[in-house]
Specification:
about 650 residues; alpha+beta; ibrinogen binding protein from staphylococcus aureus fold; six-stranded antiparallel β-sheet; 31 strands; about 40% helix; flat
Length: about 650
């Protein structure tokens, strides 16, 4: 199974990602050996992942950001956040990518264990994922960044140089010669051999210059082949991800993708999710295994204590059951040892065994030191102390049985405690598996054209659009305002342009809502005003033509003719989830408009709560109502400045 990207993979994905040039770096995240760059592109949000020694592509699998950013994270944010991507390149044909943002370059080394290095405009190292010292270069602060020694680039090598390289060691097999001499993996060396029509194991010495010419042409065709990204499966499991159709994988199951970045993301993303699942339960599973081992040992101890108590109880009972016999034996053994001594007693017993004496045959062991004799009684070994009476001997066994029972009770308590802990761990594992993974996949739908603007649907069903900045104001009026629309604007400097699509057919309610939207989305909100004035006009009254001697900047327009004023419009909006065009959207609209499309919404007004805090509160409320909304989506629809929650309608 593939673990990292090849030089060929990097070549294709770098070419594919050129559309990201000009994108703004919003934020940078660092976790382990991964860097995730959150971008604002012309298509919306995009997340670019760079993993040392592994991969580089856009991703929809996003890890939960560490609660405390690392020093490397903070440094990357300092130099990259807010900047724009100027270049995305592959160094030569090596497994090295370069992401240039302003004067700084983020270099990803995707070979070996890899590294991620930030260099300044003078090519000096600002910081790195890890600092290393090599024989030919150093990765340390302020050192000049040097690439690893250059290797042959198969895309730049001429045919003459190609022949020279291949003839350097003619005993090599074709596949080995290609892989070693021309900086390509074994997979592509094998693919080129197949495309050229030769066995991969054929020695180079058996190929003439014409044959090698076919190999050279096959190499160039392969590395410039039309992209056809796919994941290759073997026995139902992912085996490889490649940017082109490979003959070497002919006959195997494949899944195709529109872009190579999507294929890489699905391949490595699935691996990441699987690892995250394993990581989530790994410690708990280890604890479970330890508890199971403890439980097994405790069960064995319980069995031993139970058997010990039972055995000693039975021997005590056995002594009393054979009272006369045991009493007689104790008396005889005492007299014999006192008269003969223990050594002679032992000799007499041994002699008695030979002559098959019944009493001697009952004796199994003699312990002069403890003055004890062990006899066999009904198949059980019974140790009798000659210094003690029959009752005292029996009591010794009863006492042992009692101790075993105490131990059993203690062990049973410990066993039950371990069992309870095991049940708790198993429950935690079950709950952990149900939890949202630390790696989640961001499902991105294609953004509709109107989502470039602030927008809402009026209570009468008309689409109302407002510019977000000078650029979108310009686009809204020039590109999206038609003759059957209506134009609205607040009497506030820098207020957004507002357009009611099909507004000539709209009623007074829609016009009122659009004008209220215009004042609420203006600076009046951040200034904490409770009301402001706005007006509406016809599209033909709005023009870029400035009065003589004046200049209309980007996003600025003149309105000539009659303005239809609305005074004292309240600054008040509602946030909720509405269904529009068959899809659900989180939107911000005048209260009356929101109420016409959903029963649950949050009413907001200008206030002292910072925008970030307001967003967090609203996100929590929406989640309680069953809606999963990202903070960035809420940020994008809200008016400028802070606010406060005035009312919750339809929920709590």
């Amino acid at each position: 199974m593939k673990e990292g990207m090849s030089s060929v993979d990097i070549r294709y994905v770098v070419r594919e990602l050129q559309w990201l040039i000009g994108s703004r770096v919003d934020k940078v995240y660092h976790d382990g050996d991964e860097i995730r760059v959150k971008l604002r592109t012309r298509e919306g949000r995009a997340d670019l992942i760079l993993q040392a020694g592994k991969r580089f592509h856009l991703t929809s699998y996003v890890k939960e950001a560490p609660k405390r950013p690392s020093s490397f994270t903070m440094l990357l944010r300092k130099y990259l956040a807010g900047g724009f991507i100027d270049a995305i390149e592959q160094h030569s044909f090596d497994r090295i990518v370069k992401l240039r943002v302003g004067g700084y370059t983020l270099i990803g080394e995707l070979f070996g264990k890899g590294n991620i290095v930030l260099v300044d405009p003078e090519n000096r190292i600002v910081s790195a994922l890890r600092y290393e010292e090599y024989s030919d270069r150093s990765i340390k602060p302020n050192a000049e960044y040097r690439f690893p020694p250059a290797r042959e680039n198969p895309l730049e090598v001429g045919f003459g140089r190609f022949l020279e390289l291949m003839r350097e060691d003619e005993n090599l097999e074709l596949v080995r010669a290609l892989a070693r001499k021309l900086n390509m993996g074994g997979l592509y060396a094998e693919e080129i051999s197949i495309r050229a029509g030769f066995e991969k194991t054929v020695p180079v010495r058996e190929l003439n210059d014409g044959d090698l010419g076919r190999v050279y042409e096959a190499m160039l065709r392969t590395f410039n082949d039309e992209p056809k990204p796919n994941i290759v499966f073997k026995d139902g499991s992912m085996h490889d991800v490649v940017p082109i159709e490979l003959m070497v994988y002919e006959g195997l199951e494949k899944r195709y993708f529109k872009t190579f970045s999507e294929a890489l993301d699905e391949y490595f993303g699935r691996i990441t999710v699987e690892k995250a699942k394993q990581e989530q339960t790994r410690k708990l599973e280890a604890k479970k295994r330890a508890l199971l081992m403890t439980l097994k040992k405790q069960a064995e101890m319980l069995k031993g204590f139970e058997e010990g108590a039972k055995a000693n109880q039975e021997i005590g009972d056995l002594i009393y059951a054979n009272y006369a016999l045991v009493e007689r034996l104790l008396e005889e053994f005492r007299k014999a040892t006192e008269t003969l001594g223990w050594e002679e007693f032992k000799r007499r017993i041994e002699g008695g065994r030979k002559s098959r004496n019944k009493v001697a045959l009952m004796v199994k062991a003699i312990d002069p030191k403890e003055k004890a004799v062990t006899i066999e009684l009904e198949g059980r070994g019974v140790r009798l102390y000659l210094t003690k009476s029959l009752g005292e001997n029996a009591e010794l066994y009863y006492e042992k049985a009692k101790k075993f029972r105490h131990k059993y009770e203690g062990a049973l308590k410990a066993y039950e405690d371990t069992k309870r802990k095991l049940e708790e761990v198993e429950k935690l594992i079950e709950e952990e598996l149900k939890k949202e993974l630390k790696v989640k996949r961001i499902e991105r739908r294609k953004r509709k054209w109107f989502e470039k603007f602030r927008w809402f649907v009026s209570s009468e069903g008309f689409l109302v659009l407002a510019g977000k900045d000078a650029g979108t104001n310009e686009i809204l009026i020039k590109k999206h305002m038609a003759e059957n629309d209506l134009y609205c604007h607040a009497d506030v400097y820098g207020a957004p342009h507002v357009v009611i699509k099909g507004g000539r057919k709209a009623g007074e309610k829609t016009v009122f809502e659009a004008c209220q939207f215009a004042v609420s989305m203006s600076r009046a909100w951040s200034q904490g005003l409770y009301s402001a004035d706005a007006y509406w006009a016809y599209p033909e009254q709005v023009t870029k033509q400035a009065p003589s001697g004046e200049y209309m900047g980007k996003g600025a327009f003149m309105v000539y003719g009659k303005r239809n004023w609305m005074h004292g419009l309240p600054l008040e909006l509602a946030v909720g989830i509405i269904s529009y065009g068959g899809e659900e959207y989180v939107t911000c609209a005048p209260v009356s408009a929101m109420g016409a499309h959903t029963k649950r919404y949050i009413v907001i007004r200008p206030g002292r709560l910072k925008k970030g805090e307001l967003v967090k509160k609203m996100r929590g409320i929406l989640e309680r109502w069953g809606y999963k909304v990202r903070e960035e989506d809420l940020n994008a629809i809200l008016p400028p400045g802070g606010g406060e929650i005035a009312e919750l309608v339809g929920g709590s």
